[in-house]
Amino acid sequence: xxxxxxxxxxxxxxxxxxxxxxxxxxxxxxxxxxxxxxxxxxxxxxxxxxxxxxxxxxxxxxxxxxxxxxxxxxxxxxxxxxxxxxxxxxxxxxxxxxxxxxxxxxxxxxxxxxxxxxxxxxxxxxxxxxxxxxxxxxxxxxxxxxxxxxxxxxxxxxxxxxxxxxxxxxxxxxxxxxxxxxxxxxxxxxxxxxxxxxxxxxxxxxxxxxxxxxxxxxxxxxxxxxxxxxxxxxxxxxxxxxxxxxxxxxxxxxxxxxxxxxxxxxxxxxxxxxxxxxxxxxxxxxxxxxxxxxxxxxxxxxxxx
Amino acid sequence: xxxxxxxxxxxxxxxxxxxxxxxxxxxxxxxxxxxxxxxxxxxxxxxxxxxxxxxxxxxxxxxxxxxxxxxxxxxxxxxxxxxxxxxxxxxxxxxxxxxxxxxxxxxxxxxxxxxxxxxxxxxxxxxxxxxxxxxxxxxxxxxxxxxxxxxxxxxxxxxxxxxxxxxxxxxxxxxxxxxxxxxxxxxxxxxxxxxxxxxxxxxxxxxxxxxxxxxxxxxxxxxxxxxxxxxxxxxxxxxxxxxxxxxxxxxxxxxxxxxxxxxxxxxxxxxxxxxxxxxxxxxxxxxxxxxxxxxxxxxxxxxxxxxxxxxxxxxxx
Lengths: 305, 317
Fold this sequence. Notes:
The complex is a heterodimer of chains A (305) and B (317). Chain A is an alpha/beta fold and 305 residues long. Chain A has two domains: 4-217, P-loop containing nucleotide triphosphate hydrolases (Rossmann fold); 226-292, 2-Layer Sandwich (Alpha-Beta Plaits), CATH 3.30.70. Chain A contains ten helices and 14 strands. Chain A has helices at residues 44-51, 73-77, 95-103, 111-121, 136-148, 166-182, 194-197, 236-247, 267-276, 290-299; strands spanning 4-15, 18-29, 33-37, 59-64, 67-68, 80-83, 154-158, 186-191, 203-208, 211-217, 226-234, 251-254, 257-263, 280-286. Chain A has a six-stranded mixed β-sheet with strand order 6-7-8-3-9-10, sandwiched between helices. Chain A is elongated and about 75 Å long. Chain B is built from eleven helices and two strands, in the order ααααααααββααα. A two-stranded antiparallel sheet of chain B has the order 1-2. In chain B, α3 packs antiparallel against α4. At the A-B interface, α2 and α3 of A face α1 and α7 of B.
């Protein structure tokens, strides 16, 4: 409890008669990067809006550093920096003026801190330009800068990779990892694209139709789960037969490889058996994007109930 | 307290960094200048009272007015009141004050409705624009209550109304001084009171009108602010507020024979109707009743703004 920077307690939101968020409970410890994944309309943004007090909470609570966002809004929100949906800034102000505007709203943000953040986020060159002329990527950076001004213990980023090129995404990823490791900030990143944030996250929560349907560590060994393996092997017919007869595994030929689903723990036994039967094995690969596959399996069709 | 001051600083900054605000000020200045120029070229007559023959001038003016009334019957009422006024000068042997900066301000005090217009535009945008820009989300996730944010915005609107009105007043006086001279420090003018004409201080008259205009200004600004906070749409707020401001007199006149007409806000926003020489919007109006109506409307506007702004969810566009 004491190490949790943010805790959701049976969080519910009902609009009219429709339950949009159906009782979310999870907590995020300091220094963790938590990926909040779900298809569009699953309730990510609604949840985030409740986390920062933009929307009222129907039932349950959000506790930030021990303060309830419902009953102790000011103390709770002081610990939060956020971008909600797009990083919208005043287009007629420069980047610096925008930061100054938000700095005035929070206690203890010095000019030095502002310079530090601008440097950290790599916006020094453009900071005196009007935000109206910024690219989406630059606005995304400025959004992160305003969220970090007051040294929050929780950083919430809604779709932070939107509009960024691959280099930009890598840079943001490095920033996020650094913030989590060095500043011990708890970071929540939402996205509908798992692949973009998979590498930044320690843990991923999948939300669908207002419910968390799975929370999983990214580095977690998936011994018990079937994943796709590709084996480059000759002769292929023989290997296929062995897989089928000995292990009851369906396999297909794919790009000169033999592809099949199996549990990780089965792999040594399969290789052993193939070698014993004089099959030549050149390489064995575990299919990349395994999380992505699971993700699609979990959420199924991109439907909104 | 310090926090609120910083919020107000933010809001003022956002108003004055935009070019549209400065354009509004320029338009205001040009309008005042134009009025001074027109007055100067058409109303040259007014300086004629300055000589020793002012009595003769007044009598000639009366004759001309009489002749005009015979030609155009529509002018009769108005001309008769002017003649009566001239006769009051003659009977009481008062030399009419020359046309000066103060006279110009007094005659053009209604230009302050341009200030109302500008204030409505600012008040209508101050909450709604944050929703339009999407910046409201970043504004409300600070350790400041929503009331605090709204209060800073409301104070900003009032401040804007006040110094823009003051700017207009000072500018009117300056242009008036350039075109018509400064004249006496405290000239007197003759106005129609409840029982006949009487002499009052021109400067006091100007500032009383100004004060009453401020009341009107605050009411319209608060109304536009309420629409802005409740509907989060600046065009709607500007449209409704300006329509009502322009149509105020017609609305009151249209419903004047109805029992409930006296509860219409616009029958009371112009408190200068209680000044000497002006007409009442409704026959039964009294100052006390008008103030009571204004206070009730004001309370409703404020309450609605506050409740809706602090309670409602900030959802997507």
